[in-house]
Amino acid sequence: MKKINVVKNNRDFARIINCGKKYWNDCFIIYVANNEYQNYRFGISVSKKIGNAVTRNKIKRQIRNIIDKYKNIYQNDKDYIIIVRKKYIDFNFQELSDAFNNLINRVNNYKEKYNEEKN
Question: Of 5, 7, 95, 100, which cross-links 91 as Cys (Cβ 3.0–4.6 Å)?
């Protein structure tokens, strides 16, 4: 994942969580909000309740790998905040990848349905 596609500022995290639309499944919570940039951006949050620093960093690497794997389905001008839930550790990587892909597809389908209803 390129640095240009990363949300790091705490103010941006708070804005996206407070103003964004929320989607969730067993493993992830994703907040989606519009941004003023020409590309998508991701922020990843892993709680200390999930494990020690080594475990949390491993989870972040896995999520970045999943994000890169499906990079052609994200919408530009969107910010995504991914919050990892505690059940994440109960699944293997392939199941997590599928769960993330299904959740992103749900986000995209909601946007398409909303735009069709609006017109």
Answer: 95
* Average pLDDT value for the chain: 88
Mind listing the domains of the chain with CATH numbers? 3-111 (3.30.230.10)
Of 89, 35, 40, the residue nearest 67 (C-alpha)? 40
What CA–CA distance (Å, rounded) separates 35 from 110?
18
| Half-sphere exposure for 20 (CA within 13 Å, toward CB) | 23
Nearest to 14 by CA among 31, 39, 38, 1: 31
Residue 109 burial (C-beta neighbours within 10 Å; 0-12, 13-18, 19+): exposed
pLDDT tens, position by position, for the chain (119 residues)?
677 788 988 999 999 999 999 999 999 999 999 988 888 999 999 999 999 999 999 999 999 999 999 888 888 889 999 999 999 999 999 999 999 999 999 988 865 554 554 44
Q: Which two tokens stand for residue 63?
A: 């999520």
